[in-house]
Amino acid sequence: MSEKKVIKVLIADKVMTMSGYESEEYMQKVAAYINDKIDEYKAVTSFKRATPDIQHRLLEINIADDYFKAQTRVDELEEEIKIKNNELDDIKHDSVNKAMIADEMKKKLDQALKDLRESEKKVVELQTELKVRGVGNKR
Predict the structure, then answer these.
(1) Host domain of residue 30
(2) What phi, psi does 15 have (nearest 5°)?
(3) Count of domains in the chain?
(4) pLDDT at 137 over 90
(5) Cα separation of 10 and 95, whole Å?
(6) Is the distance from CB of 53 to CB of 39 less than 8 angstroms?
(7) Is position 5 within any domain?
(8) Residue 39: which of 15, 17, 13 has the closest Cα?
(9) 71 in a domain, yes or no?
């Protein structure tokens, strides 16, 4: 397990101490996200007129909303991955089946070519035998 880190961050123009096992860059990113949300809401007139307590609740609600939307998207993407993995498994299965069919067809083709060569040999033998017997020389 990594070591717990303690860093100073600036949130809403106030220096705060954050601690955690994540990297300093990650914790700064969290602080930047919160600052972006605060800046986003500071642009709304009704937010500026609200009491600090209401402002905090609105920010908390908005951050929770972002979290749940992101979690829903993660769930959707995980489901898509599951579906794509199942499709990939089906494609692999079909590919293996087709490879087995192709191998079987190749064996049959090889056997057919072998049989054809044997038949050709037999035809030559029979033609030779007919010539030896003198059959077929009369035209």
Answers:
(1) 1-43
(2) -80, 125
(3) 1
(4) no
(5) 57
(6) no
(7) yes
(8) 13
(9) no
Q: In percent, how much of the chain has pLDDT > 70?
A: 96
Which amino acid belongs to residue 7?
Answer: I
Give φ, ψ of 44 to 5 degrees: -95, 125
The span from the CA of 85 to the CA of 94, in Å, is 14
Tell the residue number behind the tokens 């994540």, with chain if given: 22
Measure the CA–CA gap between 119 and 83, rounded to whole angstroms: 53
Contact 134, 128 (CB under 8 A): no
Residue 15 forms beta bridges with which residues?
Answer: 10
129, amino acid identity: E
* Residue whose tokens read 């905090």: 56
H/E run at residue 21 = none
Strand pairing report for 5-11 and 14-20: antiparallel
Specify the residue for token string 């083709």.
109
Domain membership of residue 31 (yes or no) is yes
**The two structure tokens encoding residue 18:** 């954050």
Contacts of 37 (CB under 8 A, 6+ apart): 59, 62, 63
Residue 2 binned pLDDT confidence (cut-offs 50, 70, 90)? confident
Cα gap 120→79, rounded to integer Å: 60
Q: Is residue 16 part of a domain?
A: yes
